[in-house]
């Protein structure tokens, strides 16, 4: 049978059309109960247990659970528990969850796909006895609730028809009081989640996972202004009263943040708790610009929220005042008036237990300093106090200083390396599960050889002297090079890239997984591969002496490195050697080496120097970042030594030809596909980004000109201090931080003038050279193959909308991978400094009102020495420091601290608080009595290390780049 709905619709052109919608109903849809004799269940569908174990003191009979939509949307953590089984999910509810939250829908689908969980989807929308049409004036929500009650009643009747003695019941879970009242009136069993979980025996941990807003209600005091409704926000944006953008919290000051909006070139400042108005990092917010008279300057105070107690007295602590900087230009300032879209996720961190022994309310301290503390209720604080845990935010009411959430799960002991690595991966949203059995079953089987037909379709380059040059222990070798002198006197140079697309076909499960992961993530002691190891470290790795499939870019160059012609083709190669940078450098520098490999490397090195000089002359930037590498113990996998990265000519040699290949491929795919080429651009930074750099350099007597990349490069080259050889490196580190993020994009979506790559001074650029570890390169390979007729296009490849969405994911995953790598370096720095105290040379990066921010070149890390302000309680009986706003200096007596000054700092790990270990920075030199610590003796400080002092506590800041991987672990990879 079917139901009809007929209505008239007006078109854009004013015409009237008749629309008929037919809804088919059936009477043979399975109920999902395995023992049911009235209906059959199709193979492969989850069957509900015949007699489910109740486990509830409130509902003692065996029963199935039936959920309403809000239970799934707000209690998904509770539903993911293995203790919750035999659940009926209606198609009505499933469709509404899909519409309202794709993220929750994906998590629900994962539960539904697990046959052991016994979650059954009942298609009630197409069952004759459970379908209900929408009533006149009835809201969609009320109709859905009525459908749920109808389905629950049908199940009860259906089970009795099958077995008159059936004792199995259906319990409807709903947190809607009105819906529960109507269900009770209909004679149904119904409960709220909190009441149901409270009645369960044997699973007390589930109580912490339940979101219960009623427990936190306290309307006696209001802290924050009310958020505007969605309709008010929409109307205000339409009129121009409000602006919208993404909110980014400050890492240095928890009471400050900014929002990027289209109307202003610079981000608008949000300062103070009331103006922040419960915005959390990443939220899309609506803001109201304040009058110019109320604009502020960004605070120069380092302010960390140190509240670790959840009680009413602590909640009333007033926020510190923001000082006015009368001599500095004010920044456009705004206040958050509403939340357009929450970007809340699950957060990792530690529990700050309430000192009141009987209290169940505690504060959760997230690992991410951009996220506020979260109030949670748990009865497991004694156990969780020493664990890393995961917490989700439920809501943030006006009366609460912090958002309110619930405990999700524990990850493991604080300080355990496996646990801390898991935190890094979760915090940076890195997909790190094992590849599915479906993907594994489709991988090539070993031993593998090149198929005979491939020799016919490809150019055979096995006789050419090709070699790879990589970091020590690199196993995913995706590029190799060759150079040889031609008969006409020119030089043939080839870049050969692993042909990953031969193994990854569009639309396959492996292709979908690789596009989701988007990039390989390199941690200090492990690698999270984008593709399975059999490809990344074997069949797609251009290992020495083994035949491999490649995609080659070959140029004919003259002796001045000018390109005479370029060609691309699929090839078969056999690398003659897999060299490290050092091994290649030794071959180049050894005049006794005259074989073909040595001649090839020398030609490549000579041409690379010409290419690099030309790039720099054209305005390419040479920047810097503090990079280090850990030597890892082969058994414990703990760091045993730290060394700074050393660059050789061979590093630059490989880089130059990878850059040249990327430019050549970008030009080719844009020529053939001007609307659909996947490219990479680096936007020019706004002038405001350079202000910290300009000020810092001007205090040292140098002028940094930023009108163009060429002028910036020249200014940096000229900013040299003979008495401070690290000064220029510091300037380049600061310059790196002024840069915008380079991003992937589709050529037809922006103007060609915006293709420019600022850092490389290149009008067009893409990524072609690392398809093993970057999915962007996979797409570029497919485009290039289509250009040369080696492969055909497919619909998604030439779809702007889908490829633009892909670029968004690539940019996000690439950014998260960088952050995860830096966090891994910070973790191993902590491990390295366990039971270790060292005095090291450092340089001042910034001088703040209450702190001095320092960089330690040897370890590539940053920290803060507090001298005044928020942390004044830790500085009792200490000398007084005076901050000079005009010169941006701190002085104490005759000692004055400027940016770029060299100092000596003591590094040690503060483990007094097991929940939050931190690397402590303490001043050694210049010596200030009562503030500086005594220098360690020559014996290294094991005997002389003083007790940890609080004068310079600081969390380790993230490094600019992740450490290179150790040879023992075989995880190395050039950036």
Would you spell out the secondary-structure blueprint of this structure?
Blueprint: E1 2-10, E2 16-24, E3 63-67, H1 69-74, H2 76-79, E4 87-90, H3 91-100, H4 102-112, E5 119-122, H5 140-162, E6 169-173, H6 177-185, E7 189-191, H7 193-199, H8 230-239, E8 243-249, E9 256-260, E10 268-271, H9 273-276, E11 284-289, H10 312-315, E12 334-341, E13 346-352, E14 361-366, E15 374-377, H11 381-384, E16 387-395, E17 404-413, H12 417-427, H13 437-441, H14 452-457, E18 459-460, E19 467-470, E20 479-485, E21 491-498, H15 509-517, E22 521-522, E23 527-528, H16 533-539, E24 547-557, E25 563-574, E26 577-580, H17 581-589, H18 596-617, E27 628-632, E28 639-644, H19 649-672, E29 678-681, H20 691-698, H21 709-718, H22 727-738, E30 743-746, H23 775-787, H24 800-832, E31 837-847, E32 851-856, E33 861-866, E34 882-884, E35 889-892, E36 895-897, E37 902-910, E38 918-925
Parallel strand pairs: 3-4, 3-6, 4-5, 6-7, 18-25, 19-26
Antiparallel strand pairs: 1-2, 8-9, 8-11, 9-10, 11-12, 13-14, 13-16, 14-15, 16-17, 20-21, 21-24, 22-23, 24-25, 27-28, 29-30, 31-32, 31-37, 32-33, 34-35, 35-36, 37-38
Helix pairs in contact: 3-4, 12-24, 18-19, 19-23, 20-22
